[in-house]
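=== How it folds ===
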Amino acid sequence: MAAVPRDDLATLTREITACRACPRLVAWREQVAREKRAAFRDDEYWARPVPGFGDPRARVLLIGLAPAAHGGNRTGRVFTGDRSGDFLFASLFRSGFANQPTSRSRDDGLALHDAYVAAAVRCAPPANKPTTEERDRCAPFLHREIALLDRVRVIVALGSFGYEAAWSALRATDLEGVELPARRPRFAHALEVPCGRVTLLGTFHPSQQNTFTGKLTPPMLDAVFARAAELRAT
């Protein structure tokens, strides 16, 4: 009988990128790659599920919603190649978690220090709205990711969708030293929820809708990452 391969991030990445479990998402990500946006007509789109990215020994984990159709779905790296990623990685750079403030492509030299970025849903959904069934079908990937990132002490939820996914993952994985409150606090920017050895922080998602309107500003996001930096050592 063949040995069962040990679960690790490389194995998980291969499984994520090969997934075709959600027909609607598969059809959409591939349609976007065929039709493209005019600005990217010469690009070869990734058009597959997008794995997590960052430091495998990270103490800070960021959880977003899903790849953007012409961002991660094009570049193959989470929060890469779109304005949400520009806003996010600029803040991570200012906060000391990234070696550069931009995230353009998979081979642009970006490296994260003590931080790892993942998404609740790994394929770009139409209108940025995955269905409940698609979210739940994808959830085991995040559950395994959190279990493998065993040094994580802070989870930063990017938006309410990321917050719900983070909460569900912590509840499902039953990690040693993690204790969830009896009732889930309502999501809010700068929310802080102690969960035993892990602290869950909330921030508004760095979407264009939030950053262009001023709902989320650079100082607001920087403050969340500054708090994450404080908490990671506790």
